[in-house]
Amino acid sequence: MTSNQNDPAASARGSQLASDFTVSLHYDRRLYRQDIAGSIAHARMLARQEIISAESATSIVTGLQSIEAEIAAGDFPWRDDLEDIHMNIEARLFEVIGEVAGELHTARSRNDQVSTDTRLYAKSAALELIDAVRLAQDALLHQADMHVETVVPGYTHMQRGQPVSLAHHLLAYFEMLDRDAGRFASAAGAADVSTLGSGAMAGVPYPVDRESVAADLGFGGVTANSMDAVSDRDFSLDLIYATSVCMLHLSRLAEELIIWSSDEFGFVRMGDGYTSGSSIMPQKRNPDFAELTRGKSGRVVGNLMAAMMTLKGLPLTYNRDLQEDKEGLFDSVDTTLSALHVVQGMVRSAEFDAGRMRRAAESSYVLATDIADYLVGKGMPFRQAHVIVSNLSEQAAGSGRYLHELSLDEYRAASELFDGAVFDITVDSSVAARDVEGGTAFNRVREALQAAKARLAAASDHAS
Ligand code: ARG
Description:
With 464 residues, the protein is mainly alpha-helical. The chain folds into three domains: 13-103, Orthogonal Bundle (Fumarase C, Chain B, domain 1); 110-205 and 224-359, Fumarase C, Chain A, domain 2; 368-425, Ribonucleotide Reductase Protein R1, domain 1. It has 18 helices and six strands. It has helices at 8-22, 25-28, 32-48, 54-72, 85-97, 110-146, 166-191, 210-216, 226-231, 234-260, 288-312, 325-349, 354-362, 368-377, 382-398, 408-414, 427-433, 442-463; strands at residues 151-156, 159-165, 193-194, 221-222, 268-269, 351-352. It has a two-stranded antiparallel sheet. Strands 3-4 form a two-stranded parallel ribbon. Strands 5-6 form a two-stranded antiparallel ribbon. A hairpin with a 2-residue loop joins strand 1 and strand 2 (159-165). Helix 3 packs antiparallel against helix 4, helix 3 (32-48) packs across helix 8 (210-216) and helix 4 (54-72) packs across helix 5. The protein binds arginine.
């Protein structure tokens, strides 16, 4: 057992540790613009409502603007002993404009203040994420455009299943990202309410005008319940969830690029900027960027779990635990933004080997379904056809051949329904046969590609 009681050095270390424990300045300082915008809107409203004088509001606003410039220029005297961004700015305001600074915190608490700041941040982060998603989608369309008629095996269980257009494969990721954009938009919506006026938790005893503050800050409305307002972090969970799903999608795409760039597949060559050499093996083109995209998805999903665990046991209303909402949120947003930018460049710079992909499709049993469908066309029930072609596949594989290398006699021994037309079944006829909405026939893929381009253009118009 050690005791600090008679040891001033240990006691100083102890109190240093204690204050380090509560400090959030190192991460919440990035909210300075939101914090200052919230304070300016609040001060102006206080003056409009004659809660403070117009002169006080003017000097508060001017002071805050000069502090914002100071922070932006890197000249702000940060003080860890003041714990967070809100206290740092308020203390500095006293230094800059004197005692009138004390009027700013009228009808406000750090509880509604930090919630409003974080909501402002979440809204703009969600919009930035949508922009980054759109760029990644554009890169996919760029590749899809060049590869409508590139045939690649489609896989189930990592086994060659049926041939597909490479563009069709790439457009699958376009759809995933499209849903991500929708989730980011809905997370922005969840954050789009002002909590100012909720005070510490019960509301404030001044004639504030909450709606005008909300409108000044660009919020769509105000929260309905002051107790919920200061303790709700659902908007943050929504955004972290949306980043988690987006990272899962990027991770799956990264995984495919990693596998496809291996010697075993050789389907793709990653752009030089997205691989790195090995310090020992001179031949290596390691897909580090794709691997890190896959790896970082783990941390983002972890942030979601951490945020939910932080919130699950909290009684109403504000508890200091809520300060833990920010690091994971910032990390998830930063990581997803950078992963989206990396994936965008990685996709754009990838070179797909169409010949190699086609050979992989042709040197396989991917036409088995089509051969069964052929028998169905001759009147056989599908289940029966399935058994026959399954046996033929085994027969071919047993003698080191593919299905199209069997003789007509061998086909006819399996079923009298076969004739020479079975040899017209090719990788191309297989793809062409999937002429259904959402299918891989080239004409359908071309249509889907046009539709995707139109959706992306409409989304970009909407955003600008
Ligand atoms: N740094 C705090 C947070 O992020 C600000 C709010 C502090 N409020 C309080 N009652 N201690 O949550």
